[in-house]
């Protein structure tokens, strides 16, 4: 049978995406086959080569040249103090998801902390030297200069958790608003009427969305929002303790607490018990993340499960797509035209604390 050439949209030459679709693989796999990478099975290689021949695909020579300069390394950048990284299960779950996505590749993962100006400067120099192919950014605050710096360097990047509703980088987030809505709605259904919340930092978009969900759930239930029932936390256990003490002082009649993280819920539980409040008889308690902490607390903590490991996998998948796009010679400006904003669903896991 004579081979035929399938043209791309508008009569152009076949694209990498069309080859990937014909072969039933991802764009990154096609790129690896074309560039002679050994990280592909013989069966997959044969399928891609057959699709290339059938479509008459001609590799972009600029992309081939760029591919030769690959480092086969990506950086996971955490703009937080190291002590917070090791104290919160969120970060280890993200890394596990990234690790799963990298398991069948030879790409190395570089973990970098950039919580201060000096660390950011060192990171900027490192990235400018093109020592990694792309960057995963985790736990970014609204005013952090790192995302814009990375964007200016035209380095492929994906961010975990949007900085705002107008996020410009490719991002992966969970439905923070929907998760909070479900948590507070559950407390209302259980007959709780004086429901407090311990929020995350105000400069974290996800924390603000959880606060929005809390307020809207109360409004929907006919409970007026009371500023005295809102206490600012910082996603740490100590922050949860301080916030819970403030809430008890302001509103000793509270009968439920929605904490913006399981770690803060653990701090709140300590203060409630010290004050002689029984959980859940006197005060129902709900956390967020559904981490190992939630399952091992006594009583076991009701919590909003966000798919953190899946977020890590999806971040890595999207980063590979951005790297491949750059390797094909697409300029940074063109790549900005479409940057996915992926939002994954959350789920309320009900346990004994509520």
Give a description of the structure:
The protein is an alpha/beta fold and 354 residues long. The chain has 3 domains: 51 residues, 434 Repressor (Amino-terminal Domain) (Orthogonal Bundle), CATH 1.10.260; 135 residues, 3-Layer(aba) Sandwich (Rossmann fold); 130 residues, Response regulator (Rossmann fold), CATH 3.40.50. Helix content is 46%, strand content 16%. The protein has a 6-stranded parallel beta sheet, sandwiched between helices. A 6-stranded mixed beta sheet has the order 7-6-8-9-10-12, with helices on both faces. Helix 10 links the parallel strand 6 and strand 7. The N terminus is likely disordered.
List its traits:
354 residues; alpha/beta; 434 Repressor (Amino-terminal Domain); Rossmann fold; 3 domains; 6-stranded parallel sheet; 15 helices; 12 strands; 46% helix; 16% strand; disordered N terminus; transcription regulation; LacI/GalR-like_sensor; LacI family DNA-binding transcriptional regulator; transcription
Look at the structure and give the mean pLDDT.
87
Q: Can you name the CATH architecture of the largest domain?
A: 3-Layer(aba) Sandwich
Number of discrete domains: 3
Radius of gyration: 24 Å
Q: Residue share in helices?
A: 40-55%
CATH class of the largest domain: Alpha Beta
Order of SSEs: HHHHEHHEHEHEEHEHEHEHEHEHHEE
How are strands sequenced across the largest beta sheet?
2-1-3-4-5-11
Instruction: Report the biggest beta sheet as strand number plus sense, adding barrel if it closes.
Output: 6 strands, parallel
Full CATH superfamily name of the largest domain: Response regulator
Low-pLDDT runs: 1-11
* First-to-last CA distance: 67 Å
Number of strands: 12
Count of helical regions = 15
In CATH terms, what is the fold-level topology of the largest domain? Rossmann fold
Assign an overall shape: elongated
Structural class of the secondary structure composition?
Answer: alpha/beta
